Amino acid sequence: MLTSKSPRVRAGLAAYGDRALLLGAAFSFLLASGTYSHVMAQDTEQAADDDTLTGTVDDVVVTGTRVQSRTVGESTSPITVIGGDELRATGKQNLRDALNELDTSFRNSAGFSGQTGIAVRRAALRGLSADQTLILVNGKRRHSTALIFTAGQTSVGASPVDLDLIPTSLVAHIEILRDGAAAQYGSDAIAGVINIILKENAEGGDANITLGRYLDSNNQKHGYGPTAQLSINQGFEIGDGGFFSLGGDIDIHGFTNVAGPAPRESPGGVDYNIYPGGGTDPRETSVTRYRQILGLPKGQTYNIGYNAELPVTFGDQAKLYSFSTFGHRYSQGWGTFRNPNSPQNVRAVYPDGFEPQFVVEEDDYQITAGLKGGAAGGLFWDLSTTFGQSRANVRNENSLNPSFGPASPRDLDNGWLISTEWTTNLDLSQELATGAFEKPLNVAGGFEFRYNRFQEKEGEYHSWADGGYENPDFPAGSQGHFPLPGSAGMAGFAPENAGNYDRNNVATYLDFDQNLTSDWNVSIAGRYESYSDFGETVSGKASSRYQIFDWIAARATVSNGFRAPSLQQQFYGSSLPAYGTDPVTGVPNQLRYTRYVPSTSSLGMLLGGEPLQPETSRNYSVGLILNPLEHLNVTLDLYQIDIDDRITSITLQASQIAPILAANGLETNQNVSYFTNAVNTRTRGLDIKADYVTDFDDYGVIKWSLQSTFNRHKVTGIADNPPELAGINLQQVTRNTIGNLTVANPKNVTALSAAWLIDDFTVNVRETRYSEVRGLNALDPARDEVVRPAFITDLSVGYNVTDQVTFTLGGNNIFNVKPDQLPEAAIWTSGGALLYGFPAVGPNYSFYSPYGVYGGFYYARLSLTW
């Protein structure tokens, strides 16, 4: 038994050694009616304390199992528990970034997201796509964002759950299941499941105030990302034995900027003049060349939520429960700076040029209500319904539609994307004494109905229309004589893009769990689903765990699963105007649209599009759980994930498809993109996790933690080109796409951390190593983006001013490590164009960097408890 002379350390050790069981069903209450709904109506006790000594093999979990009181160490699948205090101790402003710091298998998706992707960042498990990880809140499926990442690179086409809109103040702990679980939960659970368990306090509360910023900026426009955050939680007792836990967060942050100055010329001699007269304009020699803002957006996020439960006199131990979150976010990013001499600038409006601002404003909410309890004979039941919606308005501000000239509005509404999900569940479980084995058979089953809707609403007329304005600053036949239509840099949704689409699915499942002996557990699960759009799926899972000796156990799992194509992937549409040479007439500087169309639209099907099918997976894992020494816990898990029919996008150039378009009487000067099932992949990996606690007596206690994640991704198959495209030179899966699937995430992430408690001080230090990543260029290997291995150090020091007040100073990436600048070959094209199209050089960092490009972030936090 660990001991210490420090009262605070002894309290921490008591929480570590005698932790009350976690309540697997965290419940919420909506004013007078409440409901909770967890993974399967299993009741365990709430953790008594969430401090730095969490995440041991003795923590009770509810994710990936329908058996009550199963611990991390007893689980047949690898699972990690992260306490709420651990999340808040990272200094990060949201759950996504906090998890990125604390679990090496969870990574923020790499790559430049562009346009609406600036607002919603994505993350995933095991280097897979963000939409291949299922997110639960109190065991209930969380709805996804309405936005879609058409430029997401490592998550192209994804519309994942937005973790940033769940209040951290309301989170008790998070359970991360790193295994396929579609047989238990349905679509999306290919890489694993993240279950966010909410607080259940009937009294008391806490508050955290955090101020921080990045160390430096590379631009005279600054951009240090100053941040202010407030989070607060308060619990209330309701009824006889009920609770109402209320939490809210406010996050206000400024932009970051890593853009260097606009160059004077490219290596090929292309001039980058800012003013029309170039070198003859006296302003050219004195004007600041820091024109571009490139980095994290400026924004505000407001989240509020509750979790509540009220015992009722209905049945046996019945409980009415409810939980809900509401989030509002305003995000403002910047497009490419338009110089005064740009064809897309109207000098009468912006004589010194302009930089359009891309604004995404969202409202996001979800509410769950239900009733659960027991019945005669030991039957447990849980009936719940969950409604969630994401509403995103996209705008272009301080901008214009140059095709309307001076008459164009300066602020344009580009339209709306709205995603809705409504899920109703009935879950049942019971232990049956079969007599065949010493312990009873746990049987679980249930039914689910889910309704999804996606709406795309057209933008205002000036955001997408062609006004036909002739720019007097440009001669006939040149770019700019007729400026491009639509909002600058991000045209609005046109009437042909607008639509309202829905689907529904029904599901039923069965789950059996049996201890064959005191050392050997076996579980089997199966799930059937029927979707109104693509048809039926059947998923299965078999798992086993065997206690070889007291200090070592083995576990293994085999399963299959799927991810249903989202409605966004099936029906999203947009058009982006540009200039191009007409592939038929050869006339240059002609208006050319790049269109995203549904694969089942008339244009999509003409060019080989087909109805999207679900991605299907096969998961295999085998692992060891070791406790060779007291207080030393080690897990090693090998896994393989085969995914067929992965959805990616195909882009067809005008020069390739002009004959097909001409033969069908369509405009020939257009590029066309759509989503398609095109790639099979295989992921193999190893997860290593170890934690150990040492007692240094008068010098405190340290909890050590080691995590290391290894994985390798490869493409195992590529679909044949559609017969409609036979005879054209088409590589539908490009080198860039293959790279994004295989080498854009680090093959290894290793983190060693220590939490040192001594008297009234807490010191947390974490060292993380990221292996090399690469962004492969579609055509030219010389333009590949390479991010070399790096070590990142995080440090925080907290001091307990009183029992209720703690002050913390900390930093993430305290040594301000940034990736190497890209070589000129990766920055410039042969035609003199710049990386990502931004008029800025030196520095030029790769956005594939797994630790970001913004350097060190430093913060101070005041924490209060009562």
Automatic annotation (TrEMBL):
This protein's UniProt keywords: Cell outer membrane, Membrane, Receptor, TonB box, Transmembrane, Transmembrane beta strand, Transport
Subcellular localization, per the record? Cell outer membrane
Does the keyword Chaperone feature in the UniProt annotation? no
Q: CDD domains under this entry? A: ligand_gated_channel
Domain TonB-dependent receptor plug, first and last residues per copy: 74-193
**Pfam families linked to this entry:** Plug (PF07715), TonB_dep_Rec_b-barrel (PF00593)
**Keyword Membrane appears in the UniProt entry:** yes
Question: Which Gene3D superfamilies does the entry link to?
Answer: TonB-dependent receptor, beta-barrel domain, TonB-dependent receptor, plug domain
Q: Which residues form the TonB-dependent receptor-like beta-barrel domain?
A: 318-814
GO cellular component terms, alphabetically, are: cell outer membrane
Bilayer topology term: Multi-pass membrane protein
Q: Entry's InterPro entries?
A: Beta-barrel_TonB, Beta-barrel_TonB_sf, Plug_dom, Plug_dom_sf, TonB-dep_rcpt-like
**Which family, according to UniProt?**
Belongs to the TonB-dependent receptor family.
Q: What is this protein called?
A: TonB-dependent receptor
Originating organism:
Oleomonas cavernae
